[in-house]
Design brief:
two-stranded antiparallel sheet, single chain, 11 strands, 326 residues, alpha/beta, 11 helices, TIM Barrel, 16% strand, flavoprotein
Length: 326
């Protein structure tokens, strides 16, 4: 099992953008040390509200890569459907080269109808556009060139410069956003990123579908290393931890799931993520790992109000990881 962090960068009420981003930078540079047994850090993409103030996660990853030496850093969910695929490929290839293979390309389709329309994409062909964009990006990263001729893109063969440092391009993960994406990923043996906001039943259903699809199409997934995202807030006072998470998530849940009961959704997240006292986090995370078959756990401590408390929890978890190293 490997461990890393992910950053949603929600701008809390009463805080500035600078403070939000500084907390990410401070936490990433803290764990970029041989003292810590965290391997990765990922940055989330979000648009048009303070419920995630990074619209360009590859850009943020590039900044963090320049500050660090050990960590592998990447985009958690670069939305490839609403960006030009050649641009994504150029940026990913450049970071792979300049970081000497430390960049990770985590990507996603577009889940927001508003963003699809805003960026002038057709909702009715969402999955087809996503797949077309991926093929261009993957061709560019694995061969250095792309020459698409499909319903969405048709342009001459171009070279993506600089070509990647890594032999087959940077490591890739795709967000498990729908059954269509999960089945598509299984056919390509692409590892999934399971979303912290999905309930455990959904995550398990996607994991089963992934395995079933791979078996059906004869795809070897023995080396696939899915990753599980987990909201973490630990406190000696369980109620304090839960209330901090409720306050942190309330605007995002209202924005993203307007058709759902907000409190019910947040209570489910609290129950199934690592939220509560120092004894509360283990069982829920262990169960999610078992249900999804994940080999990587990504944690977000951003709901915790005190950055000093975050360091204390990171130190505590780091000691537990160290104790269980082979």
């Amino acid at each position: 099992m490997k461990f890393g962090l992910f950053f949603l960068n929600f701008q809390k009420d009463g805080t500035t953008s600078e403070e939000t981003l500084d907390n990410m930078v401070k936490t990433v540079t803290l764990i970029d040390s041989t003292k810590y047994h965290f391997n990765t850090a990922f940055v989330n993409e979000h648009h048009f509200s303070k419920n995630g103030i990074v619209g360009a996660p590859i850009t943020a990853a590039g900044f963090l890569l320049g500050l660090t030496n050990k960590l592998h850093i990447g985009s958690l969910n670069q939305v490839i459907t609403t960006h030009h695929p050649v641009r994504v490929a150029e940026e990913a290839s450049l970071l792979d080269q300049m970081s000497e293979g430390r960049f990770i390309l985590g990507f996603s389709d577009c889940e927001s109808d508003f963003e699809m329309e805003f960026f002038r994409r057709h909702i009715s062909s969402r999955q087809q556009q996503f797949e077309a964009c991926y093929e261009i990006i993957n061709d560019a990263l694995t061969t250095g060139y792309c020459h698409p001729q499909n319903d969405f893109y048709d342009f001459p063969k171009v070279s993506i410069n600089p070509h990647c440092y890594s032999e087959n391009g940077p490591k890739q993960y795709v967000s498990a956003t729908s059954k269509e994406v999960v089945m598509w990923a299984a056919k390509k043996a692409l590892p999934l990123t399971f979303k912290w906001e999905d309930n455990l039943e959904t995550k398990e259903r996607y994991a089963i579908l992934y395995n079933k699809t791979a078996q059906q199409y004869g795809v070897d997934i023995s080396g696939v290393d899915h990753q599980l995202t987990v909201i973490a807030n630990l406190n000696s006072d369980r109620n304090t931890a839960q209330e901090e998470v409720r306050e942190y998530l309330k605007d995002y849940i209202t924005e993203t799931y307007p058709q759902m009961d907000r409190d019910e959704k947040i209570n489910c997240i609290i129950e199934e993520n690592a939220v509560g006292s120092h004894d509360d986090y283990y069982e829920s995370t262990k169960l999610a790992v078992e249900k999804t078959g994940s080999k990587n756990i990504l944690l977000s401590f951003e709901s915790m109000s005190d950055i000093k408390d975050v360091k204390d929890i990171i130190d505590m978890l780091n000691q537990k990881i160290e104790m269980n190293l082979p």
